[in-house]
Write a structure and sequence with these properties.
The complex is a heterodimer of chains A (355) and B (253).
Chain A (H helix, E strand, L loop, with lengths): L1 H42 L7 H13 L5 H35 L11 H15 L7 H26 L3 H24 L3 H12 L7 H20 L1 H17 L4 H23 L5 H13 L3 H25 L8 H19 L6
Helix pairs in contact in A: 1-2, 1-3, 1-12, 2-3, 3-8, 3-10, 3-11, 3-12, 4-5, 4-6, 4-7, 4-10, 5-6, 5-10, 8-10, 9-10, 11-12, 11-13, 12-13
Chain B lengths: L2 E10 L2 E11 L4 E5 L6 H8 L7 E6 L2 E2 L5 H7 E4 L11 H6 L12 H13 L15 H14 L4 E5 L7 H18 L2 E5 L3 H7 L2 E6 L2 E6 L1 H4 L2 H8 L3 E5 L4 E5 L2
Parallel strand pairs in B: 3-8, 3-9, 6-7, 7-8
Antiparallel strand pairs in B: 1-2, 1-4, 4-5, 9-10, 11-12
Chain lengths: 355, 253
Amino acid sequence: MFRISHMVMIDLIGEYERYIGRKIIFIIFTLILTIVVTGISATLGSYPISIPEVYSIVLKCLISHPENTKESIVWNLRMPRIILAIIAGAGLASAGAMTQGILRNPLATPYTLGISSAAGLGAAIAIILSKGIFAGKYVIVGNAFLFSLIPTFVILTLARFRGSTPETMILAGIAMMYIFSAITTILMYFAEPEAVKSAYFWMVGDLGRASWDVILLIFSSLLICFALLMWKTWDVNVMLIAGDEVAKSLGVNPERVRRFVMLVSAFLTASIISFTGTIGFICLVAPHICRMIIGGDHRYLLPASAIFGGALLLTCDTIARTILAPVILPVGVVTNCLGGPMFLYLLIRRKKEYW
Amino acid sequence: MRIRIRGLEFRYNSILALKDVTLDIHESEVVAIVGPNGSGKSTLLKCINRILKPRKGVIMIDGKDIKDISQIEIAKAVGYVPQVAKQSFPATVFEVVLMGRRPYISWRCSKRDIEKVLEVLRLLNIEDIAMRDFNELSGGQQQKVLIARALAQEPEILLFDEPTSNLDIKHQLEVMKIIKNIVKEKGITAVIAIHDLNLAARYADKVVMMLEGRIFAAGDPISVLTPDNIRWVYGVEVKIINDGELIYILPII
Protein backbone atom coordinates (compact mmCIF):
# COMPACT_ATOMS: atom_id res chain seq x y z
CA MET A 1 0.00 0.00 0.00
CA PHE A 2 2.75 2.40 1.02
CA ARG A 3 4.76 1.42 -2.00
CA ILE A 4 1.86 2.14 -4.36
CA SER A 5 1.23 5.64 -3.01
CA HIS A 6 4.98 6.27 -3.06
CA MET A 7 4.99 5.36 -6.74
CA VAL A 8 2.10 7.77 -7.33
CA MET A 9 4.12 10.48 -5.61
CA ILE A 10 7.21 9.96 -7.73
CA ASP A 11 5.04 9.84 -10.82
CA LEU A 12 3.38 13.12 -9.85
CA ILE A 13 6.73 14.84 -9.35
CA GLY A 14 7.70 13.61 -12.81
CA GLU A 15 4.45 14.90 -14.26
CA TYR A 16 4.93 18.30 -12.64
CA GLU A 17 8.50 18.48 -13.91
CA ARG A 18 7.35 17.67 -17.45
CA TYR A 19 4.68 20.37 -17.08
CA ILE A 20 7.37 22.91 -16.18
CA GLY A 21 9.71 21.46 -18.81
CA ARG A 22 7.23 22.26 -21.58
CA LYS A 23 7.28 25.92 -20.54
CA ILE A 24 11.07 26.00 -20.60
CA ILE A 25 11.12 24.36 -24.03
CA PHE A 26 8.84 27.13 -25.31
CA ILE A 27 11.21 29.77 -23.95
CA ILE A 28 14.15 28.07 -25.68
CA PHE A 29 12.10 27.91 -28.87
CA THR A 30 11.39 31.67 -28.76
CA LEU A 31 15.12 32.32 -28.27
CA ILE A 32 15.97 30.28 -31.36
CA LEU A 33 13.16 32.02 -33.25
CA THR A 34 14.63 35.41 -32.37
CA ILE A 35 18.10 34.40 -33.61
CA VAL A 36 16.65 33.06 -36.87
CA VAL A 37 14.51 36.15 -37.51
CA THR A 38 17.53 38.35 -36.75
CA GLY A 39 19.51 36.48 -39.39
CA ILE A 40 16.78 36.78 -42.00
CA SER A 41 16.07 40.42 -41.20
CA ALA A 42 19.72 41.42 -41.53
CA THR A 43 19.94 39.97 -45.05
CA LEU A 44 17.01 42.01 -46.32
CA GLY A 45 17.88 45.32 -47.90
CA SER A 46 19.45 46.75 -51.03
CA TYR A 47 22.90 45.31 -50.33
CA PRO A 48 22.89 41.49 -50.72
CA ILE A 49 24.29 39.53 -47.76
CA SER A 50 23.71 35.85 -46.95
CA ILE A 51 22.43 34.55 -43.62
CA PRO A 52 25.67 32.73 -42.60
CA GLU A 53 27.61 35.90 -43.39
CA VAL A 54 25.34 37.89 -41.11
CA TYR A 55 25.99 35.58 -38.16
CA SER A 56 29.75 35.55 -38.66
CA ILE A 57 29.87 39.35 -39.01
CA VAL A 58 27.81 39.83 -35.85
CA LEU A 59 30.01 37.42 -33.89
CA LYS A 60 33.14 39.16 -35.18
CA CYS A 61 31.90 42.69 -34.49
CA LEU A 62 31.02 41.80 -30.92
CA ILE A 63 34.74 41.78 -30.17
CA SER A 64 36.21 44.08 -32.86
CA HIS A 65 35.15 46.97 -35.09
CA PRO A 66 33.69 46.52 -38.58
CA GLU A 67 36.47 46.61 -41.22
CA ASN A 68 34.80 46.66 -44.62
CA THR A 69 31.59 47.92 -46.24
CA LYS A 70 29.73 44.65 -45.77
CA GLU A 71 30.53 44.50 -42.07
CA SER A 72 29.74 48.15 -41.66
CA ILE A 73 26.33 47.76 -43.31
CA VAL A 74 25.41 44.85 -41.07
CA TRP A 75 26.82 46.26 -37.84
CA ASN A 76 26.17 49.99 -38.18
CA LEU A 77 23.09 50.16 -40.42
CA ARG A 78 21.03 47.03 -39.98
CA MET A 79 21.89 45.68 -36.53
CA PRO A 80 20.96 48.79 -34.47
CA ARG A 81 17.47 48.73 -35.89
CA ILE A 82 17.19 44.97 -35.35
CA ILE A 83 18.48 45.13 -31.77
CA LEU A 84 16.23 48.10 -31.00
CA ALA A 85 13.24 46.14 -32.31
CA ILE A 86 14.14 43.17 -30.10
CA ILE A 87 14.69 45.12 -26.88
CA ALA A 88 11.74 47.45 -27.46
CA GLY A 89 9.48 44.46 -28.16
CA ALA A 90 10.85 42.64 -25.12
CA GLY A 91 10.29 45.61 -22.83
CA LEU A 92 6.79 46.37 -24.06
CA ALA A 93 5.75 42.71 -23.81
CA SER A 94 7.20 42.35 -20.30
CA ALA A 95 5.40 45.44 -19.07
CA GLY A 96 2.19 44.22 -20.73
CA ALA A 97 2.38 40.72 -19.23
CA MET A 98 2.88 42.01 -15.70
CA THR A 99 0.28 44.78 -16.00
CA GLN A 100 -2.32 42.24 -17.13
CA GLY A 101 -1.36 40.15 -14.12
CA ILE A 102 -1.57 42.81 -11.43
CA LEU A 103 -4.75 44.36 -12.80
CA ARG A 104 -6.34 40.93 -13.31
CA ASN A 105 -7.54 42.12 -16.68
CA PRO A 106 -6.76 40.62 -20.09
CA LEU A 107 -7.13 44.02 -21.80
CA ALA A 108 -4.88 45.96 -19.48
CA THR A 109 -1.52 47.20 -20.71
CA PRO A 110 0.66 50.13 -19.66
CA TYR A 111 -1.15 52.04 -22.43
CA THR A 112 -4.47 51.49 -20.64
CA LEU A 113 -2.93 53.34 -17.73
CA GLY A 114 -2.55 56.44 -19.88
CA ILE A 115 1.17 56.17 -20.58
CA SER A 116 0.90 56.28 -24.36
CA SER A 117 -1.38 59.28 -24.62
CA ALA A 118 0.67 61.18 -22.06
CA ALA A 119 3.88 60.40 -23.95
CA GLY A 120 2.07 61.50 -27.11
CA LEU A 121 1.20 64.84 -25.55
CA GLY A 122 4.77 65.31 -24.32
CA ALA A 123 6.15 64.65 -27.78
CA ALA A 124 3.51 66.83 -29.44
CA ILE A 125 4.32 69.75 -27.16
CA ALA A 126 8.01 69.39 -27.95
CA ILE A 127 7.40 69.10 -31.69
CA ILE A 128 4.74 71.80 -32.05
CA LEU A 129 5.85 74.42 -29.56
CA SER A 130 9.60 74.18 -29.91
CA LYS A 131 11.31 76.01 -32.74
CA GLY A 132 14.88 76.36 -34.00
CA ILE A 133 17.51 75.19 -31.57
CA PHE A 134 14.98 73.76 -29.11
CA ALA A 135 13.67 71.31 -31.66
CA GLY A 136 16.47 68.81 -31.02
CA LYS A 137 15.46 65.17 -30.88
CA TYR A 138 16.40 64.80 -27.22
CA VAL A 139 13.89 67.50 -26.30
CA ILE A 140 11.17 65.30 -27.77
CA VAL A 141 12.51 62.22 -26.02
CA GLY A 142 12.88 63.98 -22.67
CA ASN A 143 9.47 65.59 -22.86
CA ALA A 144 7.74 62.37 -23.88
CA PHE A 145 9.46 60.53 -21.05
CA LEU A 146 8.54 63.08 -18.38
CA PHE A 147 4.93 63.33 -19.52
CA SER A 148 4.48 59.58 -19.74
CA LEU A 149 5.24 59.24 -16.04
CA ILE A 150 2.51 61.74 -15.04
CA PRO A 151 -0.45 59.32 -15.26
CA THR A 152 1.43 56.75 -13.21
CA PHE A 153 2.04 59.21 -10.41
CA VAL A 154 -1.55 60.44 -10.53
CA ILE A 155 -2.84 56.87 -10.32
CA LEU A 156 -0.49 56.00 -7.48
CA THR A 157 -1.54 59.11 -5.55
CA LEU A 158 -5.19 58.30 -6.11
CA ALA A 159 -4.58 54.73 -5.01
CA ARG A 160 -3.17 56.02 -1.75
CA PHE A 161 -6.59 57.43 -0.87
CA ARG A 162 -8.92 55.02 -2.62
CA GLY A 163 -6.97 51.75 -2.31
CA SER A 164 -4.85 50.08 -4.97
CA THR A 165 -7.58 47.93 -6.46
CA PRO A 166 -7.50 46.95 -10.14
CA GLU A 167 -10.78 48.79 -10.74
CA THR A 168 -9.53 52.11 -9.34
CA MET A 169 -6.29 51.87 -11.30
CA ILE A 170 -7.88 50.97 -14.64
CA LEU A 171 -10.61 53.59 -14.40
CA ALA A 172 -8.13 56.27 -13.35
CA GLY A 173 -5.85 55.23 -16.23
CA ILE A 174 -8.63 55.46 -18.79
CA ALA A 175 -9.62 58.89 -17.45
CA MET A 176 -5.99 60.00 -17.90
CA MET A 177 -6.00 58.68 -21.44
CA TYR A 178 -9.00 60.83 -22.38
CA ILE A 179 -7.61 63.92 -20.69
CA PHE A 180 -4.24 63.70 -22.41
CA SER A 181 -5.75 62.88 -25.81
CA ALA A 182 -8.06 65.86 -25.51
CA ILE A 183 -5.19 68.23 -24.74
CA THR A 184 -3.19 66.80 -27.63
CA THR A 185 -6.14 67.34 -29.98
CA ILE A 186 -6.50 70.97 -28.91
CA LEU A 187 -2.79 71.50 -29.41
CA MET A 188 -2.86 69.95 -32.88
CA TYR A 189 -5.95 71.92 -33.88
CA PHE A 190 -4.02 75.18 -33.60
CA ALA A 191 -0.64 73.94 -34.86
CA GLU A 192 1.09 74.17 -38.25
CA PRO A 193 0.22 71.30 -40.63
CA GLU A 194 3.88 70.18 -40.89
CA ALA A 195 4.25 69.97 -37.12
CA VAL A 196 0.93 68.11 -36.80
CA LYS A 197 2.14 65.60 -39.35
CA SER A 198 5.38 64.88 -37.56
CA ALA A 199 3.65 64.74 -34.17
CA TYR A 200 1.17 62.30 -35.61
CA PHE A 201 3.89 60.10 -37.06
CA TRP A 202 5.70 60.13 -33.75
CA MET A 203 2.62 58.62 -32.17
CA VAL A 204 2.40 55.78 -34.68
CA GLY A 205 5.76 54.47 -33.52
CA ASP A 206 8.88 53.94 -35.58
CA LEU A 207 12.27 52.32 -35.12
CA GLY A 208 14.09 54.61 -37.58
CA ARG A 209 15.89 56.50 -34.81
CA ALA A 210 17.96 53.48 -33.78
CA SER A 211 21.55 54.01 -32.76
CA TRP A 212 23.92 52.19 -30.42
CA ASP A 213 23.60 55.01 -27.84
CA VAL A 214 19.82 54.71 -27.71
CA ILE A 215 20.10 50.94 -27.56
CA LEU A 216 22.45 51.12 -24.59
CA LEU A 217 20.03 53.37 -22.68
CA ILE A 218 16.95 51.24 -23.37
CA PHE A 219 18.85 48.03 -22.77
CA SER A 220 20.00 49.09 -19.31
CA SER A 221 16.46 50.13 -18.43
CA LEU A 222 15.19 46.76 -19.72
CA LEU A 223 17.73 44.77 -17.71
CA ILE A 224 16.99 46.51 -14.42
CA CYS A 225 13.21 46.56 -14.84
CA PHE A 226 13.06 42.96 -16.04
CA ALA A 227 14.98 41.78 -12.98
CA LEU A 228 12.66 43.75 -10.68
CA LEU A 229 9.57 42.35 -12.39
CA MET A 230 10.95 38.82 -12.32
CA TRP A 231 11.41 39.19 -8.56
CA LYS A 232 7.67 39.82 -8.13
CA THR A 233 6.36 37.10 -10.47
CA TRP A 234 5.62 34.66 -7.66
CA ASP A 235 3.62 37.26 -5.73
CA VAL A 236 1.66 38.18 -8.86
CA ASN A 237 0.85 34.49 -9.34
CA VAL A 238 -0.48 34.30 -5.79
CA MET A 239 -2.61 37.43 -6.26
CA LEU A 240 -4.01 36.24 -9.56
CA ILE A 241 -4.81 32.67 -8.55
CA ALA A 242 -5.84 33.23 -4.94
CA GLY A 243 -7.24 36.77 -4.97
CA ASP A 244 -6.26 39.70 -2.77
CA GLU A 245 -7.67 38.43 0.52
CA VAL A 246 -6.07 35.03 0.39
CA ALA A 247 -2.86 36.59 -0.91
CA LYS A 248 -2.73 38.61 2.30
CA SER A 249 -3.27 35.45 4.33
CA LEU A 250 -0.26 34.00 2.47
CA GLY A 251 1.97 36.87 3.48
CA VAL A 252 1.75 38.91 0.26
CA ASN A 253 0.80 42.58 0.38
CA PRO A 254 -1.22 42.82 -2.85
CA GLU A 255 -1.55 46.60 -2.90
CA ARG A 256 2.17 47.12 -2.45
CA VAL A 257 3.01 44.55 -5.14
CA ARG A 258 0.51 46.22 -7.48
CA ARG A 259 2.04 49.67 -7.00
CA PHE A 260 5.57 48.35 -7.35
CA VAL A 261 4.90 46.40 -10.56
CA MET A 262 2.94 49.30 -12.01
CA LEU A 263 5.76 51.75 -11.35
CA VAL A 264 8.42 49.47 -12.84
CA SER A 265 6.26 48.64 -15.90
CA ALA A 266 5.49 52.31 -16.45
CA PHE A 267 9.16 53.29 -16.23
CA LEU A 268 10.15 50.52 -18.64
CA THR A 269 7.42 51.43 -21.14
CA ALA A 270 8.21 55.14 -20.87
CA SER A 271 11.92 54.59 -21.46
CA ILE A 272 11.11 52.69 -24.67
CA ILE A 273 8.29 54.71 -26.21
CA SER A 274 9.92 58.06 -25.60
CA PHE A 275 12.52 56.94 -28.18
CA THR A 276 10.34 54.91 -30.55
CA GLY A 277 6.92 56.51 -30.26
CA THR A 278 3.89 54.57 -29.11
CA ILE A 279 4.19 51.26 -30.89
CA GLY A 280 0.85 49.57 -30.35
CA PHE A 281 -0.32 46.02 -29.77
CA ILE A 282 2.95 44.30 -28.81
CA CYS A 283 2.29 44.75 -25.10
CA LEU A 284 -1.18 43.26 -25.52
CA VAL A 285 -0.66 40.54 -28.12
CA ALA A 286 2.72 39.03 -27.18
CA PRO A 287 1.75 38.14 -23.58
CA HIS A 288 -1.59 36.74 -24.74
CA ILE A 289 -0.04 34.46 -27.33
CA CYS A 290 2.37 33.17 -24.67
CA ARG A 291 -0.48 32.70 -22.17
CA MET A 292 -2.33 30.59 -24.72
CA ILE A 293 0.71 28.39 -25.24
CA ILE A 294 2.30 28.03 -21.79
CA GLY A 295 -0.37 29.28 -19.37
CA GLY A 296 -0.42 31.99 -16.76
CA ASP A 297 2.51 31.14 -14.45
CA HIS A 298 4.33 34.48 -14.53
CA ARG A 299 7.68 32.97 -13.58
CA TYR A 300 7.75 31.50 -17.10
CA LEU A 301 5.27 33.79 -18.80
CA LEU A 302 7.40 36.90 -18.21
CA PRO A 303 10.61 35.65 -19.88
CA ALA A 304 8.61 33.93 -22.63
CA SER A 305 6.62 37.12 -23.37
CA ALA A 306 9.78 39.21 -23.36
CA ILE A 307 11.64 37.07 -25.88
CA PHE A 308 8.57 36.44 -27.99
CA GLY A 309 7.69 40.16 -27.93
CA GLY A 310 11.17 40.93 -29.23
CA ALA A 311 10.86 38.43 -32.07
CA LEU A 312 7.36 39.68 -32.89
CA LEU A 313 8.33 43.36 -33.10
CA LEU A 314 11.39 42.45 -35.16
CA THR A 315 9.22 40.47 -37.58
CA CYS A 316 6.81 43.38 -37.88
CA ASP A 317 9.64 45.83 -38.47
CA THR A 318 11.19 43.56 -41.09
CA ILE A 319 7.85 43.55 -42.90
CA ALA A 320 7.57 47.33 -42.48
CA ARG A 321 11.01 47.76 -44.08
CA THR A 322 10.48 45.44 -47.02
CA ILE A 323 6.82 45.32 -48.00
CA LEU A 324 6.81 48.63 -49.90
CA ALA A 325 10.61 48.96 -50.34
CA PRO A 326 12.24 51.40 -50.86
CA VAL A 327 9.51 53.10 -48.76
CA ILE A 328 9.89 52.21 -45.08
CA LEU A 329 6.62 52.12 -43.19
CA PRO A 330 6.53 53.02 -39.49
CA VAL A 331 6.47 49.75 -37.56
CA GLY A 332 3.43 50.88 -35.55
CA VAL A 333 1.32 50.61 -38.71
CA VAL A 334 2.36 47.01 -39.22
CA THR A 335 1.87 45.95 -35.58
CA ASN A 336 -1.63 47.39 -35.66
CA CYS A 337 -2.50 45.87 -39.04
CA LEU A 338 -1.14 42.41 -38.20
CA GLY A 339 -1.83 42.41 -34.47
CA GLY A 340 -5.59 42.80 -34.72
CA PRO A 341 -6.36 39.98 -37.17
CA MET A 342 -3.76 37.67 -35.61
CA PHE A 343 -5.31 38.19 -32.22
CA LEU A 344 -8.81 37.46 -33.50
CA TYR A 345 -7.57 34.31 -35.22
CA LEU A 346 -5.96 33.08 -32.00
CA LEU A 347 -9.10 33.81 -29.99
CA ILE A 348 -11.14 31.69 -32.38
CA ARG A 349 -8.60 28.88 -32.54
CA ARG A 350 -7.87 28.55 -28.81
CA LYS A 351 -8.82 25.20 -27.34
CA LYS A 352 -9.43 26.03 -23.70
CA GLU A 353 -9.93 28.93 -21.39
CA TYR A 354 -6.60 30.51 -20.57
CA TRP A 355 -7.85 33.63 -18.85
CA MET B 1 -4.04 28.91 24.99
CA ARG B 2 -3.76 29.62 21.32
CA ILE B 3 -5.95 32.59 20.42
CA ARG B 4 -6.91 35.31 22.87
CA ILE B 5 -9.15 38.13 21.65
CA ARG B 6 -9.83 41.16 23.86
CA GLY B 7 -12.17 44.08 23.18
CA LEU B 8 -11.99 43.75 19.39
CA GLU B 9 -13.73 46.40 17.33
CA PHE B 10 -13.85 46.71 13.53
CA ARG B 11 -15.50 49.19 11.20
CA TYR B 12 -16.08 49.11 7.44
CA ASN B 13 -15.94 52.86 6.91
CA SER B 14 -18.85 53.96 9.10
CA ILE B 15 -20.51 50.60 9.62
CA LEU B 16 -19.61 48.89 12.86
CA ALA B 17 -19.01 45.21 12.09
CA LEU B 18 -17.46 43.99 15.35
CA LYS B 19 -18.13 45.41 18.77
CA ASP B 20 -16.20 44.53 21.92
CA VAL B 21 -15.48 40.93 20.95
CA THR B 22 -13.68 39.02 23.68
CA LEU B 23 -12.97 35.32 23.15
CA ASP B 24 -10.51 32.59 24.08
CA ILE B 25 -9.83 29.71 21.71
CA HIS B 26 -7.81 26.77 23.00
CA GLU B 27 -5.43 24.34 21.36
CA SER B 28 -6.82 21.57 19.08
CA GLU B 29 -10.35 22.78 19.34
CA VAL B 30 -12.96 22.99 16.60
CA VAL B 31 -14.73 26.28 17.16
CA ALA B 32 -17.84 27.05 15.13
CA ILE B 33 -18.89 30.68 14.74
CA VAL B 34 -22.59 30.93 13.94
CA GLY B 35 -24.95 33.84 13.50
CA PRO B 36 -27.19 35.47 10.89
CA ASN B 37 -25.83 37.03 7.69
CA GLY B 38 -23.94 40.20 8.50
CA SER B 39 -23.40 39.34 12.16
CA GLY B 40 -19.62 39.61 11.80
CA LYS B 41 -18.53 35.96 11.45
CA SER B 42 -16.30 36.46 8.40
CA THR B 43 -15.02 39.79 9.70
CA LEU B 44 -13.89 38.12 12.90
CA LEU B 45 -12.03 35.42 10.94
CA LYS B 46 -10.33 38.01 8.75
CA CYS B 47 -9.20 39.96 11.80
CA ILE B 48 -7.55 36.86 13.26
CA ASN B 49 -5.06 36.63 10.39
CA ARG B 50 -4.90 40.34 9.74
CA ILE B 51 -6.54 40.29 6.31
CA LEU B 52 -8.44 43.09 8.03
CA LYS B 53 -6.77 45.38 10.53
CA PRO B 54 -8.94 46.29 13.52
CA ARG B 55 -8.69 49.76 15.06
CA LYS B 56 -9.36 48.70 18.65
CA GLY B 57 -8.69 45.60 20.66
CA VAL B 58 -5.98 42.98 20.86
CA ILE B 59 -5.60 39.59 19.22
CA MET B 60 -2.86 37.41 20.65
CA ILE B 61 -1.63 34.15 19.20
CA ASP B 62 0.47 32.14 21.64
CA GLY B 63 0.81 35.21 23.82
CA LYS B 64 2.10 37.43 21.02
CA ASP B 65 0.13 40.42 19.81
CA ILE B 66 -0.35 39.84 16.06
CA LYS B 67 0.08 43.55 15.44
CA ASP B 68 3.78 43.03 16.14
CA ILE B 69 4.20 40.00 13.87
CA SER B 70 4.92 40.33 10.15
CA GLN B 71 2.33 39.12 7.64
CA ILE B 72 4.71 36.34 6.56
CA GLU B 73 5.10 35.07 10.13
CA ILE B 74 1.31 35.12 10.55
CA ALA B 75 1.02 33.20 7.27
CA LYS B 76 3.27 30.48 8.70
CA ALA B 77 1.00 30.08 11.73
CA VAL B 78 -2.50 30.76 10.41
CA GLY B 79 -4.05 29.27 7.27
CA TYR B 80 -7.18 30.77 5.73
CA VAL B 81 -9.66 28.76 3.66
CA PRO B 82 -12.03 31.04 1.72
CA GLN B 83 -15.44 30.15 0.36
CA VAL B 84 -15.52 28.44 -3.00
CA ALA B 85 -17.44 30.94 -5.00
CA LYS B 86 -16.30 32.48 -8.22
CA GLN B 87 -14.44 31.30 -11.25
CA SER B 88 -10.77 31.92 -10.64
CA PHE B 89 -7.82 32.38 -12.96
CA PRO B 90 -6.97 29.11 -14.75
CA ALA B 91 -4.42 27.10 -12.77
CA THR B 92 -3.78 23.45 -12.05
CA VAL B 93 -4.62 22.02 -8.64
CA PHE B 94 -0.90 21.54 -8.07
CA GLU B 95 -0.21 25.23 -8.69
CA VAL B 96 -3.06 26.33 -6.43
CA VAL B 97 -1.74 24.21 -3.57
CA LEU B 98 1.85 25.32 -4.23
CA MET B 99 0.72 28.90 -3.48
CA GLY B 100 0.37 27.74 0.12
CA ARG B 101 4.16 27.51 0.24
CA ARG B 102 4.49 31.26 -0.42
CA PRO B 103 5.35 32.12 3.21
CA TYR B 104 8.41 29.87 2.93
CA ILE B 105 9.66 30.76 -0.55
CA SER B 106 10.25 34.11 -2.11
CA TRP B 107 10.99 33.02 -5.66
CA ARG B 108 12.24 29.51 -6.32
CA CYS B 109 10.44 26.51 -4.92
CA SER B 110 12.61 23.72 -3.59
CA LYS B 111 12.15 19.97 -3.72
CA ARG B 112 10.88 20.15 -0.13
CA ASP B 113 8.10 22.51 -1.15
CA ILE B 114 7.01 20.18 -3.92
CA GLU B 115 7.09 17.20 -1.58
CA LYS B 116 5.03 19.11 0.96
CA VAL B 117 2.41 19.79 -1.72
CA LEU B 118 2.29 16.09 -2.58
CA GLU B 119 1.95 15.23 1.09
CA VAL B 120 -1.14 17.38 1.61
CA LEU B 121 -2.66 16.27 -1.70
CA ARG B 122 -2.32 12.72 -0.46
CA LEU B 123 -3.67 13.57 2.95
CA LEU B 124 -6.86 14.86 1.35
CA ASN B 125 -6.88 12.04 -1.17
CA ILE B 126 -6.85 14.32 -4.21
CA GLU B 127 -3.49 13.45 -5.79
CA ASP B 128 -5.32 11.97 -8.79
CA ILE B 129 -6.63 15.41 -9.78
CA ALA B 130 -3.31 17.22 -9.20
CA MET B 131 -2.77 18.23 -12.82
CA ARG B 132 -6.40 19.13 -13.59
CA ASP B 133 -7.56 22.70 -13.96
CA PHE B 134 -9.00 24.00 -10.69
CA ASN B 135 -12.00 25.56 -12.47
CA GLU B 136 -13.08 22.25 -13.99
CA LEU B 137 -13.55 20.61 -10.59
CA SER B 138 -16.77 20.16 -8.62
CA GLY B 139 -17.47 22.39 -5.64
CA GLY B 140 -16.54 19.64 -3.20
CA GLN B 141 -13.22 18.98 -4.89
CA GLN B 142 -12.46 22.70 -5.06
CA GLN B 143 -13.10 23.06 -1.34
CA LYS B 144 -10.68 20.22 -0.65
CA VAL B 145 -8.03 21.89 -2.83
CA LEU B 146 -8.41 25.13 -0.88
CA ILE B 147 -8.05 23.21 2.38
CA ALA B 148 -4.93 21.55 0.94
CA ARG B 149 -3.47 24.97 0.11
CA ALA B 150 -3.99 26.16 3.67
CA LEU B 151 -2.45 22.93 5.01
CA ALA B 152 0.60 23.46 2.77
CA GLN B 153 1.28 26.54 4.90
CA GLU B 154 1.95 24.13 7.79
CA PRO B 155 -0.26 26.26 10.05
CA GLU B 156 -1.17 25.72 13.67
CA ILE B 157 -4.49 27.51 13.26
CA LEU B 158 -6.92 27.07 10.36
CA LEU B 159 -9.69 29.55 9.62
CA PHE B 160 -12.61 28.42 7.45
CA ASP B 161 -15.09 30.84 5.93
CA GLU B 162 -18.30 28.88 5.38
CA PRO B 163 -16.60 25.78 4.03
CA THR B 164 -19.84 23.87 3.44
CA SER B 165 -22.20 26.46 2.06
CA ASN B 166 -21.88 25.48 -1.63
CA LEU B 167 -21.71 21.73 -1.13
CA ASP B 168 -24.18 18.86 -1.28
CA ILE B 169 -24.89 16.95 1.91
CA LYS B 170 -22.34 14.22 1.20
CA HIS B 171 -19.55 16.71 0.62
CA GLN B 172 -20.64 18.84 3.58
CA LEU B 173 -20.15 15.85 5.88
CA GLU B 174 -16.93 14.85 4.13
CA VAL B 175 -15.37 18.30 4.46
CA MET B 176 -16.37 18.59 8.13
CA LYS B 177 -14.93 15.14 8.78
CA ILE B 178 -11.67 16.17 7.11
CA ILE B 179 -11.49 19.26 9.32
CA LYS B 180 -12.18 17.22 12.45
CA ASN B 181 -9.50 14.67 11.51
CA ILE B 182 -6.88 17.32 10.80
CA VAL B 183 -7.55 18.91 14.17
CA LYS B 184 -7.26 15.56 15.96
CA GLU B 185 -4.20 14.26 14.11
CA LYS B 186 -2.15 17.43 13.79
CA GLY B 187 -3.25 19.25 16.92
CA ILE B 188 -4.35 22.19 14.78
CA THR B 189 -6.96 24.64 16.03
CA ALA B 190 -9.86 25.22 13.61
CA VAL B 191 -12.17 28.22 13.64
CA ILE B 192 -15.12 27.79 11.30
CA ALA B 193 -17.66 30.40 10.30
CA ILE B 194 -20.68 28.29 9.41
CA HIS B 195 -24.40 28.69 8.70
CA ASP B 196 -25.55 25.13 9.25
CA LEU B 197 -26.39 24.79 12.95
CA ASN B 198 -26.69 21.00 12.75
CA LEU B 199 -23.17 20.67 11.32
CA ALA B 200 -21.92 23.03 14.02
CA ALA B 201 -23.66 20.95 16.70
CA ARG B 202 -22.24 17.71 15.33
CA TYR B 203 -18.61 18.68 14.69
CA ALA B 204 -17.72 21.64 16.94
CA ASP B 205 -16.21 21.41 20.41
CA LYS B 206 -17.33 24.94 21.06
CA VAL B 207 -19.93 27.20 19.46
CA VAL B 208 -19.74 30.99 19.37
CA MET B 209 -23.03 32.66 18.50
CA MET B 210 -22.82 36.18 17.13
CA LEU B 211 -25.42 38.91 16.70
CA GLU B 212 -24.83 42.36 15.22
CA GLY B 213 -21.08 42.26 15.72
CA ARG B 214 -21.18 41.05 19.32
CA ILE B 215 -20.76 37.63 20.86
CA PHE B 216 -24.21 36.62 22.03
CA ALA B 217 -23.29 33.28 23.56
CA ALA B 218 -20.28 30.97 23.66
CA GLY B 219 -19.73 27.50 25.03
CA ASP B 220 -20.35 23.85 24.20
CA PRO B 221 -22.97 23.18 21.48
CA ILE B 222 -25.71 22.00 23.84
CA SER B 223 -25.56 25.08 26.02
CA VAL B 224 -25.39 27.57 23.14
CA LEU B 225 -27.76 26.08 20.58
CA THR B 226 -30.93 26.40 22.65
CA PRO B 227 -34.43 27.31 21.40
CA ASP B 228 -34.29 30.60 23.34
CA ASN B 229 -30.93 31.68 21.89
CA ILE B 230 -31.94 30.75 18.35
CA ARG B 231 -35.27 32.57 18.68
CA TRP B 232 -33.48 35.69 19.94
CA VAL B 233 -30.66 35.67 17.38
CA TYR B 234 -32.41 34.39 14.24
CA GLY B 235 -36.07 35.06 15.06
CA VAL B 236 -36.85 31.42 14.26
CA GLU B 237 -38.74 28.90 16.39
CA VAL B 238 -36.89 25.59 16.66
CA LYS B 239 -37.22 22.30 18.43
CA ILE B 240 -34.08 20.63 19.77
CA ILE B 241 -33.94 16.86 19.76
CA ASN B 242 -31.31 15.31 21.99
CA ASP B 243 -30.64 11.62 21.37
CA GLY B 244 -28.21 11.42 24.25
CA GLU B 245 -25.13 11.82 22.05
CA LEU B 246 -25.95 14.59 19.60
CA ILE B 247 -28.47 17.37 19.30
CA TYR B 248 -30.56 18.05 16.21
CA ILE B 249 -32.11 21.40 15.46
CA LEU B 250 -35.46 21.36 13.68
CA PRO B 251 -37.16 24.56 12.59
CA ILE B 252 -40.88 24.75 13.34
CA ILE B 253 -42.78 26.48 10.58
